């Protein structure tokens, strides 16, 4: 386990999750699928060592990863895409690539420390997938195995 809190930025699209870990400055990409999210979990510190996981709202593509991480007690914050873009502009980061966006999201989380709001609203997740307990089940198994 690490001495410093981990700040995680995840840039979400339909096929991929681009992830950036601070302060490690480690970036990687996983698929936006159940197996990709399982792979993501292998790279993360335990939830109690993570300060924030910052995701950009992307029309629903973020819901599966947000569901899994929040259910496993990670402090997930979903921010508005416009807000994320404004942060990048303020940091004079005009390049628009997924790895850069993930790094900006992690930096935003560390700098601004946005409040953690409950994502437990069933309507938020049910609109993402008609059977979110089915999606979640494999993750709960790997967490306790």
From TrEMBL:
Short name of one Pfam family: DEDD_Tnp_IS110
GO BP of this protein: DNA transposition
PANTHER family: TRANSPOSASE, TRANSPOSASE FOR INSERTION SEQUENCE ELEMENT IS1111A
Span of domain Transposase IS110-like N-terminal: 8-123
Gene Ontology molecular function terms on file: DNA binding; transposase activity
Protein name: Transposase IS110-like N-terminal domain-containing protein
């Amino acid at each position: 386990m690490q001495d410093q809190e981990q700040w995680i930025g995840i840039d979400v699209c339909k096929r991929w999750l681009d992830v950036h870990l601070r302060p490690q400055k480690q970036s990687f990409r996983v698929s936006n699928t159940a197996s990709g999210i399982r792979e993501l979990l292998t790279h993360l510190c335990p939830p109690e060592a993570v300060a924030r996981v910052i995701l950009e709202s992307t029309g629903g593509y973020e819901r599966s990863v947000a569901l899994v991480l929040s259910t496993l007690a990670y402090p997930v914050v979903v921010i508005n895409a416009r807000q994320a873009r404004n942060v990048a502009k303020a940091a004079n980061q005009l390049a628009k690539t997924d790895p850069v966006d993930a790094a900006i999201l992690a930096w935003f989380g560390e700098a601004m420390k946005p409040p953690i709001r409950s994502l437990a609203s069933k309507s938020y997740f049910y609109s993402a997938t008609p059977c979110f307990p089915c999606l979640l089940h494999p993750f709960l198994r790997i967490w306790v195995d």
